[in-house]
Amino acid sequence: MRQLISTADLSRADIDDLMVLADSFAEVQTRDVPKVPALRGRTVVLAFFEDSTRTRTSFDLAARRLSADVLNFSVASSATKKGESLRDTVETINAMGIDAIVVRHRSSGTPIQISRWTDAAVINAGDGWHQHPTQALLDAYTLRQRLGDIDGAKIAICGDINHSRVARSNVDLFTKMGAEVTLVGPQTLMPPDISGWPVTISHDLDSLLSEIDVMYMLRIQTERLSAGLFPTVREYRSRWGLTVQRAGELRSDAVIMHPGPMNRGVEIDPEVASEPRCVVLDQVASGIPVRMAVLYQVLGPGRFANEEAAVDRPDVEESNHSVSPTDGSVEAEPDTKQAMAMKEASCQ
To answer: Rounded CA gap, 163 and 191, in Å?
Structure first.
């Protein structure tokens, strides 16, 4: 598998492997020179057709810390402003000999379509209301750091569920990892049909606060107000915002999350966003090792890559040795699935 379009692409084993790899790359972050040669010689294109700060910067840093060459595609200065089609743009970039394209687009399904126009790996960095798989992975990684295990955790996701790619991705990933997920918010912001969703629904946030392990708040977009999906920002905050008073009803060890950017004073009070239980900045920090792990798995000789190519490489020893993706050292140990997933990332 040479792409990551949706959390549906990931099995529980895939998720576990990515968490282990992310641990390895998190250690790289602590070094004086936080860089490894795992993807040296590879070219990664960041094609963001929507504005982004966290995701774009995180992927950029992740790729560079793996020693990949990074091309930032600027829509504002591209031929798309002259009427060039998306297909022509993708095929032009592909002709330059790239290895991966990380794409964000306002239209759902765009990464899938792009994967038909390029032989490069495609990673979805957010498409419309559809999916944001690496956000779900970094959220799971952050919770794993705080809770130790997500299995059995009670997670409430509150806000604009219907228009949220984060909610869709997180519901799928969290439930695969054994969590119990409750969706909370106004009826007008819920999906019209949740028959296939492994969740429960509530419209009363206050009734859940004392029972949950994780309170995940979603950003409210101003266009929902103009569409009449809820009366006023003030009313939304009073019924579904995580106010100081509501935060006081949460358990002392509960985790508060938000994908960012936050509307302070709307879905979350400023005081709540600044307290120790709120892990928003931890989520941002987790994005780099998690996206390093995704890039490595897609482009390196890991589970998601063409493992035959790895076997044919002259620098891969045919022995029961594992090679760390972070330092290239060799240790004599039995060849396990985890060892194979991490094999030969930086041995050049």
So the answer is: 8
